[in-house]
Amino acid sequence: MKKVDHIGIAVRNLEEMLPYYTETLGCPLMKIEQVDSQKVRVAFIDAGNIKLELLEPIDETSPIAKFIEKRGEGIHHVAFGVDNIEQRMEELRSAGVQLLSDAPKPGAGGAMVAFMHPKSSGGVLYELCEKQ
Ligand code: ZN
Predict the structure, then answer these.
(1) Is residue 96 packed enough to be buried (19+ CB in 10 Å), middle (13-18) or exposed (0-12)?
(2) Distance between CA atoms of 55 and 71, rounded to whole angstroms?
(3) How far is the CA of 96 from the centre of ligand 1 (A)?
(4) Taking the model in full, what pTM does it have?
(5) Residue 79: beta bridge partners?
(6) CA of 105 to the centre of ligand 1 (A)
(7) pLDDT tens across 3-45, in order?
(8) Nearest 5°: phi and psi at 44?
(9) CA of 23 to the centre of ligand 1 (A)
């Protein structure tokens, strides 16, 4: 893994949570975009050496809606930046790590992403993230 690229945080409502980050904490908002493949609206916050990815579900079928329903708002995943996501997925699969998809999917910021099953990672949802 190159570095931790960002931390994903599940929120019910972006507009309600953003002032906490941008005004109270004083972290700049980088951008907001919708990621249809994950059914989320995403706001990237510049927190210095790391980005925070605030994830708001766009409807109740979104994985983030289900997460919030079960566990409430809060930390959803930690994302590792990688260089060659397909190769990394293959290496992890060979090492017995369960992945949530067979192939990478388009994520926020034009990245390709894949998730490792929390059962393989001691309860933590890890994302692999390759910037294009
Ligand atoms: Zn992420």
Answers:
(1) exposed
(2) 14
(3) 22
(4) 0.93
(5) 6, 127
(6) 12
(7) 999 999 999 999 999 999 999 999 999 999 999 888 999 999 9
(8) -95, 130
(9) 23
